[in-house]
Design goal:
- The complex is a heterodimer of chains A (178) and B (199).
- By secondary structure, chain A is mostly helical.
- In chain A, strands 1-2 form a two-stranded antiparallel sheet.
- Chain A contains 4 helices and 2 strands.
- Chain B has one domain (33-198).
- Chain B is built from 6 helices and 2 strands.
- Chain B is elongated and about 85 Å long.
- Chain B starts with a helix and ends with a helix.
- The relative contact order of chain B is 0.17.
- The chains are: A mainly alpha (178), B mainly alpha (199).
- At the A-B interface, strand 2, helix 3 and helix 4 of A face strand 2, helix 5 and helix 6 of B.
- Chain B: Homodimer and heterodimers.
- Chain B: It comes from Zingiber officinale.
- Chain B: Its main location: membrane.
Chain lengths: 178, 199
């Protein structure tokens, strides 16, 4: 049997099939983790709601009132759906297309968390130069929910980064392409 | 001779892949990559420079005492918003990286270096994307405000600040798109090279 040249240095008696199998299991685990993280981020953000009454004025905080948080929910929803679809695709057929979409979805998730992070920092600290007061003191429940959602989204982003790295590795040693 | 033997063995797929990889290794591909990098360098440095010099001061009359109006000046600068500070820093890093990659391009023929350049390309693209996204959300808030949080828009008062910030943002988005195209290009060329050398 002819041993193919791997791009990763491996011990001599290791065969290609065992390595491919272990990588495949790791790949599936990463996708499941990404799907779970994206789903939990979307759900936690979507269920965040708090209101407080201040001097007769009701200050209500929902995620729909802020475009960056809406984008976070929608982007993580798309990431979750795509992760599920990518788990069940017959691998040999569309693997190159999946790699391309992986990069696109990873970038979508990072952009969403960047925008939500900027908005969350503003909500917590305010901006005295623009006359924008912080809102987290009045609606602490909403801020906690948003923080939890952003942590889940960050886990999803890091997992997608690992998935993209694995895709690059698959590109470099195409014998590993399932 | 080994190439010819493998071509006879595997049929025409090997030949097609070596021609594709030869096309990608040709001078046209290298020139395309260099021009993309130059365009990305111009875009990101424009974004960083324009946002870094983004400052506007307006004086408004806050009160009138008798016949004398009391003026107060308000300043809008990029340092006041952490998102814009991050935007400037990230675009500066990206333009420095593009400059370095353009200057060292001819000396990086090693395959390991190719992979390193591709990975750092991806990292820089991610940075620029996050910087542009954060600055875009801040810019949208400054333009439209948020009536639920009682945050008033500021663009009606500081018009020049908003316009300059908007142009910088557009430049950063263009730079991000160019970086993405470069990423895809190097990924495809790496893949074809590895297929060719594996066969």
């Amino acid at each position: 049997m002819r041993l193919f040249k791997c791009r990763v240095p491996i011990a001599a008696p290791c065969s290609i099939t065992k390595m491919v199998k272990s990588f495949r299991v790791l790949y599936l685990l990463l996708r499941l983790l990404a799907a779970a993280a994206a789903l939990s981020a979307a759900i936690v953000m979507a269920t965040s709601h708090d209101s407080t009454t201040l001097l007769g004025i009701t200050l209500e905080a929902k995620f729909q009132y802020n475009p960056a948080f809406e984008f976070l929910v929608i982007a993580n929803g798309i990431g979750f759906c795509y992760s599920l679809i990518a788990l069940f695709i017959p691998s040999s057929l569309l693997s190159r297309l999946v790699i391309m979409f992986d990069v696109i979805i990873a970038m979508l998730l990072t952009a969403a968390i960047a925008a939500a992070g900027a908005m969350a920092q503003l909500g917590k600290n305010g901006n005295t130069h623009a006359g924008w007061l912080p809102v987290c003191d009045q609606v602490p429940n909403f801020c906690d929910h948003a923080m939890g959602a952003m942590i889940c989204a960050l886990v999803g982003v890091v997992t997608y980064l690992l998935i993209v790295l694995y895709d690059v590795h698959m590109l470099l040693s195409p014998k590993l392409l399932p | 001779m080994a190439d010819k033997a493998m071509a006879d063995e595997n049929g025409k797929q090997t030949e097609r892949e070596t021609t594709l990889s030869r096309l990608l290794k040709s001078k046209m591909a290298a020139q395309l990559l260099i021009s993309l990098r130059l365009a990305a360098l111009v875009a990101t440095s424009t974004a960083a420079g324009l946002m870094a010099f983004n400052k506007e001061t307006i004086t408004v009359t806050v009160a009138v005492v008798g016949t004398k109006p009391i003026l107060q000046s308000f300043t809008a600068a990029f340092q006041q918003t952490p998102a814009f500070v991050y935007f400037v820093i990230v675009n500066a890093i990206a333009s420095l990286y593009n400059l370095l990659a353009m200057l060292l391009g001819p000396y990086l023929k090693n395959r390991g270096r190719d992979v390193l350049v591709h990975l750092s390309d991806m990292a820089v693209f991610a940075l620029v994307a996050t910087g542009a996204a954060a600055a875009a959300s801040m810019a949208e808030l400054g333009k439209n405000g948020n009536k639920y949080a009682r945050w008033n828009p500021i663009c009606d008062r500081f018009e020049a600040f908003c316009i300059r910030g908007g142009v910088a943002l557009v430049a950063a988005f263009i730079g991000a798109v160019l970086l993405l195209v470069m990423n895809a290009f190097t990924a495809i060329s790496l893949m074809c090279k590895s297929v060719a050398s594996n066969n």
